[in-house]
Structure prediction request, 549 residues.
Amino acid sequence: MITLNGIHKSFKVARRKPGAKAALAAMFRREYDIVNAVDGVSFDIPDGEIVGYIGPNGAGKSTSIKVMSGILIPDEGTCAVAGLTPWADRKKLARRIGVVFGQRTQLWWDVPIIDSFDLLRDIYRVPQDEYKRSRDRLVGALDIGAFVNTPLRQVSLGQRMRAELAASLLHSPDILFLDEPTIGLDAVSKLAVRRFIREINAERGVTVLLTTHDMHDIEALTDHIILIGKGRILYNGTMSAVKSSKTAEGLPVEEIVAGLYKEHGL
Amino acid sequence: MSAVKTRNMSTITDIVRPYASMFRIQFIGQLQYRAAAWAGIVTQFFFGFVFVMMYSAFYGGEAGAVGVPSLQTIISYQWLKQAFLMMVVLWSQDADLLNQIVGGHVAYSLCRPVDLYSLWAARLLANRAARCALRFAPVLILAFVLPAPYGMIPPPNVESGLLFIVSLLLGALVAVGMSMFLYVLTFVTLSSVGPRLFIGAIADFATGMIIPIPLMPDWLQRALAMTPFPHIADLPFRIYSGDIAGAAAGAAIGVQVFWVITLGITGWLAFRVVLRRTVVQGG
Prediction:
């Protein structure tokens, strides 16, 4: 169960006017803009659900995921993930959640992927027998056996992403945050990633919150979407309800979402 | 699923497991850079020769004045410096970790149930150990084969040799403890270039990498003795040659331990402060 209640987070961003004079002035006195990254976000995600968290770039998706995983302390609001307050119980929560940031890697560049897995086993202090079971299952389900002994720098992006997914699940978390897990992947890898997310949700009851810009990910995985824009939740409901509205009839899913963004002035 | 999570975590092995594992993976990873090591060995030979020639000319065949170490001591000092350079220099850092801080990848590390300071310290120590493991043997072998007075001589006795090893390992820990402040600074400045240059330049001089500390003026030696710098490389090298021996060596190693603990505690606290700030402001 994930609960966010009135989460607010703003950042101070240094403002610079163009030109040499302004640059010089900035050395002595800096001006800041306050940017509201998330501005009163509230939602609930029941156990065992897959939720698509969508919104344009800069909408506040990553910021809220960082709050939920304990990396970021909000200015206001309350949050509970697996019964814990993320920023107060960060290390405790770490055992209960798995996180994949699609644009970053958690695996070691120079060593075979399997060595990274072994390190994660020790970091999460997973007992050997339990680790072996969960690793073998993940290697099979994600079909990464062929390159698991290859150093990360020599595998393709699609292969890497499958390895990242496996890495985030070695300690058997009940909640998985996926921040753009399909970014830059080819069709085959995308399908493999989607199939796997469906599998762990159905078989192990893992709660999944995923952000993506690929609406086909959402279509393939879930009907429950949360739309965020300019730091606010704009829609929390089903994709089918959006699709069946009059204006959306017969349109491709990308058009519908673009329409949603437009409707909310994004 | 969560029922499995209740584990007995009280054993020592379980506590050190993540850090030992990090050391192992990083050590193995670094051993892959063999080309860099060969290039390093050639460089170390070259600089070793240059310094040895320079000091031979400087001493001009004289035994040296009273209170100044003998030429043989200084030559051993030079070869030890070349052989164990990667263990002790402060400019040898982990570019990947620095990039993690600057690029925000550190987010991943924050979602782990471990003490990040200890994890990174283990990694820095592994870097030093691996980079040194690849380089030191060829340099030492050559230095021992070279004829006197250009070559190296063994330590005067077994005790000095053993104390040298202990002191060198502690010196590497002091170097790691000081290095961690570079990562702390990088969290603040979000660019590692400035802090790295600054620390590297000061440390190269203050650790005796440019001029051996025994050849510096007395007042400077006294001033440096108050800092951790001479306890990184200068001390182990002088213990090797018997310049510092017996009770004096024991006391000096005690001071090394003091610096390891002091730097560890202050660095850990500073790390906590910058991490807290990062968590508040966003990566």
Observations:
- The longest strand of chain A covers residues 31-45.
- Chain A is about 40% helix and 25% strand.
- Chain A has a mean pLDDT of 89.
- Residues 31 and 210 of chain A are 36 Å apart (CA to CA).
